[in-house]
Design goal:
Layout (H helix, E strand, L loop, with lengths): L1 H8 L21 H12 L3 H14 L4 H21 L12 H11 L1
Helix pairs in contact: 3-4
Length: 108
Amino acid sequence: MQKELLRTISPVMNEKKNGGLEDMEYLNLPDRLFFHWCQQKYRLNKGVYNTIDHWFYEYGIVHILHRRINLLAFLDFASASEQKAGKTKFIKFGNGGLRQKLQEFIAD
């Protein structure tokens, strides 16, 4: 049943034409469904997802929509360096690597 539920998310995630990032409908999904979408795209586990979300909250990004936008921008940022290095198409963080990568993201 969970896989069927995930398949039904796909049509919802289309960006509205002439809209900005805030208009992407999947940003307004319930937390569990949004996490599953991120998990499918970036192969994150729930712990990494929660750590990133909490880090942005502690950084001062309180509004959930803004945190999700930043979370996706960060995941794209982190995955770009992995792809350029010819490693994997999915993100990997070593010991302390997640915090370091988040600091690099904020510094850019």
